[in-house]
Amino acid sequence: MAGVQDQLEIKFRLTDGSDIGPKAFPAATSVATLKESVLAQWPKEKENGPRTVKDVKLISAGKILENNKTLGECQSPLCDIPGGVTTMHVVVQPPPLEKA
């Protein structure tokens, strides 16, 4: 496929407008691996951070990305700018409240 790069520069935009990254990932990287990276790099001073990969949703070009897909499969033609950085939005799904 023309225009698909081996490495994609991605930054993760958190709900408060701050960013994690940018960082280069191979196009074969799974969405689940990206979520693990977000979890590992999550700023410790931020409240309500994700506890597990299941708490994290990644959104790119208006679509929620599925864990079993690779970056190459999720890449939008709109985001395919040579040397550009793709911004993915991070949504933390709060854990369910425990009933007392």
TrEMBL record:
Membrane topology: Lipid-anchor
Cellular compartment(s): Cell membrane
Every Ubiquitin-like domain range: 8-74
Source superkingdom: Eukaryota
Gene Ontology terms: cellular component: plasma membrane
Main location: membrane
PANTHER family registered for this protein in UniProt: MEMBRANE-ANCHORED UBIQUITIN-FOLD PROTEIN 2, UBIQUITIN-LIKE PROTEIN 3 HCG-1 PROTEIN
Known role: May serve as docking site to facilitate the association of other proteins to the plasma membrane.
Protein name, as recorded: Membrane-anchored ubiquitin-fold protein
